[in-house]
Structures are given as structure tokens and as C-alpha cells.
Amino acid sequence: MSSDVTEPKWSLRLPADCSIAAIRSVYDLIREAFGRQDRLEIDCSSVDKADVTSIQLLLSTAKTGEAQGRPVVLTSFSQSLRNTLRRAGFASDAMIDQHFPQKKDGT
Amino acid sequence: MNAMDPTEVFRQEANELFEVLEGALLDLGQRPDDRELVDSAFRALHTIKGSGAMFGFDKVASFTHEFETAFDRVRKGEIKPTQELISVALAAKDYIRALIEDPQSTDDIIGEAILDDLRRFVSSDQPAAPLEAIAEVPPPAPADSKQAGWHLYLEFESHILRNGSNPLDLLEDLCKLGPCFVVPVTDGIPFLDEMEPEDCYLKWDVKLHAACGKDAIDDVFMFVSDEMKLTLSPLEQVEAPAPMPLFQLLDEEPAPETEIPAPVLEAVAAPVAAQPVAKAESKSESKPEPKHEAKPEPKPEAKRDERGIATVRVQAERLDELMDRVGELVIAQARLSQLAASGSDLSIKIIAEEIERLASSLRDTTMGARMVPIGSLFGRFRRLVHDLSRDLSKPVEFVTSGEDTELDKTMIECLADPLVHLIRNAIDHGIEDTATRAANGKTEQGRIELAAVHSGAQVLVTVKDNGGGLNTARIRAKAEEQGLIAAGAVLSDHEIHQFLFHPGFSTAQTISALSGRGVGMDVVKRTIENMRGSIDLTTRPGQGTTVTLRLPLTLAIIEGLLIRVGEGRYIIPLSAVEECVELTAEDERSRGRNFLNVRGNLVPFLRLRQLLTASGSPDKHQKTIIISTGETRVGLVADQIIGNHQTVIKSLSKLHSDVTIFSGATILGDGTAALILDVAQLVTLAQSKVEKQHISEAA
Description:
- The structure holds 2 protein chains of 2 kinds.
- Chain A is an alpha/beta fold.
- Chain A has a single domain, classed as Transcription Regulator spoIIAA (2-Layer Sandwich).
- Chain A is built from 4 helices and 5 strands; from the N terminus they run ββαββαβαα.
- Chain A has a 3-stranded parallel sheet.
- A 5-stranded mixed sheet of chain B has the order 6-8-9-11-10, covered by helices on one side. Chain B has a 5-stranded mixed sheet with strand order 19-12-13-21-20.
- Chain B starts with 5 loop residues before the first helix and ends with a helix.
- Chain B is globular.
- Chain B has 21 helices and 21 strands.
- By secondary structure, chain B is of the alpha+beta class.
- Chains A and B meet through helix 1, helix 2, helix 3 and helix 4 of A and helix 7, strand 2 and helix 10 of B.
């Protein structure tokens, strides 16, 4: 990511359930936050249910932020989210870093 | 909320799987080389086995396992599915069904006998026909070949996650076959605004370093193969060591250049092109492996059934209950509208209109939820035709069309028995034996076509055979013999054919197990008419017979046109109405002709006052409602057109069952009743009167 990720202005904590059962509401949350803020920090520390839909939503958020020049930073990946990422083939921290813009001190 | 018994859920699911299994087996009889059919049958068997074990149907699980094992040679393409084998497989399917539905009625000896038959057929050394699909994919890798494994590209249908399938579980299963290098392909991820969060956008590029066969990989994706694109190509043996397992990869030192697959670069480059690629960048000049796009597809794209997306299983009786409630709501809403119209309170009128709109929308949604594709019914008859064809030694091709045509679920249930009768009759009486067909210059194989098509607010279901056609002279002779008509009475062919629907009427010279007792066609007619439908027969000597069933889309609520004739009010189904015109003075003068000139076209009309024997004097400006029924356009002359009316259909009492021109009644907003006109019957009645008049004039 080429975005400036140092000064996020607004933080959104993802709920515990980010699986397909609840992904629609998480999607709405992120879109709403996007509509209100120029910079967005997403705290992933509480996520304990994740699946393909969660990964896709985070990828899309990053992609949208990148395209619109509005920095998106993901912080504090929970172990559950990391496990899901690994199962999906994001097999290392390096690979995760490449796809998901993270604030290093927060992970 | 009364939760469904899990065992009942299994039974219902098993029934659906039996339909799939039976369909696949019957199709295999026609297309023995179709690999997809074998896979489909196996998927159904596999699910029955798994679910059976889960729900405690141990006998089912064990028998199905034996069935699978015995049938495995077919799956491997080692033997061809012959008609005999298909018949035994169908018997095995019936046995499993019995084990689930009525285990007490089954006997282990029967099950063993079926399995013995199955084993005997599959152990015979008949040559295997090459299966189509096998020819299109690389052959399974022998253990000693130079092949190092498989390169897979996985692309799932967008709805796959909604079905409960989890690609990550599948990837995990794949990794159990051997060391796997999984790379997610993210270029399909859309922007937030374009995203459906429950859809699947990720794809995967996988290198599986295992000398397993293609079958092992197919097994992993067995349950989703219809909902994904799997591109498979063999990996060539390389000298370098196999890549590390998934979870270690990239956490360690970079692998040698030649090991780096192109998809890694695709994966990381797509979403984060602007960012330097840490570990993969150094490998960007590595020679990419031939891309998967260059490889042929492993199999033709499977048929995709989109109907199953995000479905919820609901008990049928709950839908009925919901429909009843909606019916009551519609009646209450009509009363409210009437009250609001008679008062002067504007706010009440606005609320009444809003509730009318909501009730209408709720009615449509509820009715939509009750609609079921007729294909679910058609599938059942394939077995019937297969078995009859075998028992009567009459080769019959069974062709269906319009399976996606939707009908109210109640209609589908009621339609099953009449169609069984019609198809049995068509094969037993319609289709000639092979010798007769050959003598008449016909193909040995007869043909039965079962079709469904929408026609306005009706669905036409036709059963057509290419047999000998009806013998009108014999029907007439039989009718005279039974005293149904006087000898020498003048009757049209159409009228003579109607005797087939008379109770106890049969022209069959012998009574078989299937037909000939004269029981059936009258029941068929009564059932169809009870559904507010009609039945029609057309026949051409030597060429066959077509039976057409005209059915309304639903039995519950219709949009109607409320009219007044004399003092009575009646409903005409709005779907049958084409337009309304005023009866001009010129038309009025045309008494005796009864034809309207509608923009240059002559349209016959019926005076409802006469047909319904209305009292009082007619209105000065009478209105004509032009309706269409089948191919016919007819005008119905009424005193007044009151307007649209959401009509909750209430059945008439048995006392009125003989009054064919009314299909039911409804309750109006003021609490009074209005009769619903059955326009098809009305027109038939009028045509019959005219026909009789012509015949008597000619005589």
C-alpha cells in the first residue's frame, strides 16, 4: 500500500462474529465508517469468527481505500483471523502485510 | 415454533437425493458415456450414506456403502452402465428408500440379493467404453511416472458460500493429499460499493505435490463440482525439492527461483500494486510455469442450478396457513377500502390505499413463495415410463420440456395422479407395439412428450404420444352399446371423444394391470376440474393423441374484475381480460349475429344477462369485457364494470359442483358474496350450444 497509514482519524472495532452469518452488518458498518471518515483504522482484535467473507471484506476495504486515496489501517489481528488467513493461503506475515495495510505497533 | 424432527429433515432431503439419483441413473441408460451423470449419481449416494449414518440410519449407510463399492467400477470407467445394470441400480435405490421410509417392510435377504446382482453385473468383464470426460482430462498419474503432482486452479460460483460450502475446508482436505502450495488469487475482489459481502470472489491457485490420482482430487470437490470451475493439469517432475507445506511457506527463506510460481506474483500484485513486494519481488524474473488458461478444461461446465441459492426449508402446512391469513387480510382490507370510500375522511382513505398496496404486495410475495417448478414433478415419471416400457416391451422415448414452469405447490401435488394415468394410457393404449409401428412405417421407438408452458394466467400441461390415435368409431360404438347415446345420433368427433371421460367407459379389449377397466379418465377429469382447470383431447388417426391440461397458476387468490349483471355481482379473473369496450348501438342492433367489431376484427360475444338469467332491465350503456381463453377471444356483455378486486377464492359447496361455469366464490367488502366466472367453461358451454344448433340446423 502506498497510503499514509500513520495518522488514522477514526477507529472501528470489528465485532466478534465476522463470519458469513454476520458479514452483511459488518459490511454496513465499514461502509458507514467510510462515508464519514477520510481515514479509517479497523481494529481486528475482537474477531473470533472469520471465514472467506471476512477476508474478502478486508481486502475490498483496503482496495477501496487505496483507490480513493483514503488510508485504511488494520490493527491487532486476532489469532482467529490470522488462522483463517493462513487457511486461505495468506501463509505468512509477509504475505498478509502485502495484502492488508497494518499499523505495525498495533499488531 | 415447532422445530422439525431431524429425522424428518433427513427423510425429506433423502427424497430429493433419490430424485437426483434416479434421474442420473435413467439418463445413464440413454447416455452411458456421460461421466457427469456417473458423478452425479455418486454424489447423491455419498450424501445419502453420510447423512444416513449421521441420523442413525445405520442400515441405510451400510447398504449404500456396499452399493457405492459395487458401482465403483462404473465410476472408474472400467465398465459401461448397461440397461440391466441400471435396472439393478434402480432396484437398489428403491431398497434404500424403503429402508428409510418403512424399514419394517424390508428384508435383509432382498438387500443382499440386490447387492449380489449388482456385484455380478459389475464383475463381468465387459469392455469399457471410453468416457467423454476422461478423454478431456489428463489421465490419472501412475505412481511411478515422472509426474510430481497437480496444478489446480479453483474458481467457485459466487453463491457457494451461501450454500454453506466452505472453500477453506476443501483446501484443507486437499492439503491432506500431500504437500500443498496454496496461493489466493485476489484480482476478483471488487470495490466496497460493488460488493455482495456473502458472494465468493477469491480464487485459488494450488500446487499439490502428491502422486495421487485425479479421482482423489475429484473426491475432495465431489459435493461442489457443479458449483465451481476446477482446472487441473499435471505438474512435471522437477529436480528441486518439493515446496514446503502451506503453513511454513514464506515464513522461511525464499525458495530457489525455479520454484516460484507465477500465481504468487499475480496474487500479490493485483490489490497492492503500488507497494513493494517484499519476498516475491526478488523472484519476479523467475520463469513462470505454463499458465492454467492454456490447459484444456477438465470437463464441460456442469449444469448449474441457481434455484437452490440461499433457500430455507419451510413446512408446507405453514405456507398454507400463511396463505389463509393473507386471504383473510385481503378480505378485511376490501372492507376497509369500501368503508373509506363511503366516508369523507381523507386520512382514512390514504391509510386504506396504503393497506391495499401492502396487502397486494404481501399476497404476491406469499404466492411466489408457494410456487414450485413443475420439473420436480416431471422427474417422477421418467421411472414410470422406464418401467412401463420394459414391462410392455414397447421402447419409448420420454421427452420433457418446460420443467422450469412454476405452479402453486398445491397444484403440483394434485397433478401427480392425473399425469400418471395419462402417461400409462399413452404407453398402454396409445403407443403401438413394435411390429405394428414397423408395419405402419414408424420408428420402433415410440415417443411420449410431457410439456408445460405458461399461457397467460394458465399453465398448459400436455401429454403427447405418437401412437395410433383415438379410434373414434370404436368409442362411438362402445357409447351406443352402453346406452350413452342413441344409435345414429349426430355427434361431433369432439363430443364422441368426451365419452372417454365418462365413469366406467373403456374401449380396451383386454383388461391389463395398467389400464382397461375404464377407471381413470373420469377421475383425471374430475381432479383437473376440481383444480379449476380443464382437459382437452386432440387426436390424429395414425399419428397420435395429445391431452392438454389447462390449469390456473394458483388456487388461492387471484386478481379479478368485478362486474354487475342485473342485481348480481361476478368476478372475471383479470388475467383472462384483454380489454373492456362499450357495446355500441350498432353492436346492439346485431342481435342474432353476436359479433363485435373491435378495431376491424370480429369478436363473438356472449350476453351474460341471458346466460345468467338476470332479472330487471339491462343498463342503457352495456359494457363488453373481451377475454381470451386458449386461442379464443370472446366478449362478455355485462351491465356494469365495477373495478379491480383482489379475489380470495372460496370453494363452492358440493351442491353447486355441477354448475361448471363458476369456479368459486368470494366475499366482497360489504360482506356479500360474488361468484367467480370460469371463462373457459363459459365459452365451452356457449360453443357447445352453437355446435348443437348448427348440427340440428344441418339435420
